[in-house]
Design brief:
This protein is mainly α. The protein folds into 2 domains: 79 residues, Winged helix-like DNA-binding domain superfamily/Winged helix DNA-binding domain (Arc Repressor Mutant, subunit A); 141 residues, Four Helix Bundle (Hemerythrin (Met), subunit A).
Length: 229
């Protein structure tokens, strides 16, 4: 994170509040593990790197605290990147499985499902990314795929529920990709390869129960992957 990145955000979002831009920069670095779990976030150092005052940095850290990305520790001052606790991953993925399975079910009840061609395209890009060990492609196909399943279910309440979890889910998605990157022999990553396509095929066949089952299986595989360490 540096002044150049800040300037790019400012150019793209000239009317955005500075604290929200700092939030986005820190969010990206935490999500992609450029800032490791447990790392202390030094307000003065961040402000110096970005050549801004400390106030927007402090405000951004409070925003990250509110969504669980940073935490305070007993008998220690300041903010720290929250650790990736296995029990929290399990709770998050349990909720994720319930929401995304229902979304896949609803998608398969529609004739045709909205965005089905884009879902299929993303599913094959995801598979190709794993085969080529291209982790940027995996990330760029995985996160939009799951979001598009949610959006395509056309149920505003399901969409709102997912929105509450989305940022944490994205963090753990990146965590899973990072494990695959560092352990190319990981058998769980092989298990994931065909699963997006299986979900899409069930939706295309208008088989809601099968679509929900395929999504549930995928989320369970993702949980095993995220908690592999």
């Amino acid at each position: 994170m540096n002044k150049e990145q800040l300037n790019k955000y400012l150019q793209a979002n000239p009317f955005e509040q500075l604290n929200k831009i700092v939030f986005s920069l820190l969010f990206d670095d935490i999500t992609t593990l450029k800032i490791a779990p447990g790392a202390k976030l030094n307000v003065a150092q961040i402000a110096t790197e970005l050549n801004i005052s400390r106030t927007p940095v402090t405000e951004a850290l409070k925003m990250l605290y509110n969504i669980g990305f940073v935490e305070t520790l007993p008998n220690k001052s300041g903010f720290y990147v929250s650790s990736l606790k296995r029990e929290e991953i399990v709770k998050l993925y349990t909720a994720r499985e319930m929401i995304e399975s229902k979304a896949a079910y609803l998608c398969a009840t529609m004739h045709p499902c909205p965005n089905i061609e884009e879902l299929e395209k993303l599913a094959y890009e995801y598979k190709e990314g794993f085969i080529l060990r291209d982790y940027e492609t995996i990330k760029n196909a995985d996160i939009p795929f799951h979001q598009l399943i949610i959006d395509s279910c056309c149920n505003s309440h399901v969409i709102q529920c997912y929105e509450l979890l989305k940022r944490q889910i994205q963090r753990y998605q990146w965590y899973s990709v990072n494990i695959s990157r560092n352990d190319p022999e990981n058998p769980i990553s092989e298990e994931l390869i065909p699963q997006h396509i299986a979900i899409v095929n069930a939706i295309k066949l208008y088989m809601p129960d099968l679509a929900a089952e395929a999504m549930s299986k995928h989320i369970v595989s993702c949980l095993k992957h995220a908690a592999f360490r």
